[in-house]
Structure prediction request, 186 residues.
Amino acid sequence: MERRVKDRNILDKFCLDFCKVVEKHCKYIIVSGFVAIASGRTRGTEDIDIIIEKLSQSKFAKLHKSLIKNEFICIQGSNSNNLYNDYLKDNISIRYTYKKLLLPEMELKFSKDSLDDYQLKTRVKLKLTGLDLWFSSVNVNIAFKEELLKSDKDLEDARHLRIVYSEMINNNEIDKVKSMIKEQRL
Prediction:
């Protein structure tokens, strides 16, 4: 039996629209709660987390200009140099939304270490979601939710991912990523 998440909503459309622009400029991954939501978990969120490869200031300016041209705005401001220098270069995320809607938001951040680089290197498209998007792998998401985030919501997300992607679970990789998290983030 083939399982697919069939109902699309504003989060799906927003994510698809945003990533369509981003992928013309750099590698990206969708991480955290939206991975579980796109995989059929019912829970609310107002933002989607995206990690992109670290860009030069000029490359980021081109990406930002494309996002603006495609009806997105950045909540922190419109000047790409300020966004780069005041936020992104210091590993502080910025948030985009549709120009005419306050929600949902895309929380964008640069890859900040070898753990984020590993996530970008092992990114996957998850057929179950029905979305043509690059996601952080299921194993990496589980590791982050169980080892670093640990809120009730995150632990439920991890349980959901373990169930719906049971055939993809690699406990050795999960343990490897948990060790990386302990070394680099805790």
Notes: The beta strands are 28-31, 47-52, 72-74, 94-98, 105-110. The two ends are 41 Å apart (CA to CA). The chain is about 45% helix and 15% strand. The first strand starts at residue 28 and ends at 31.
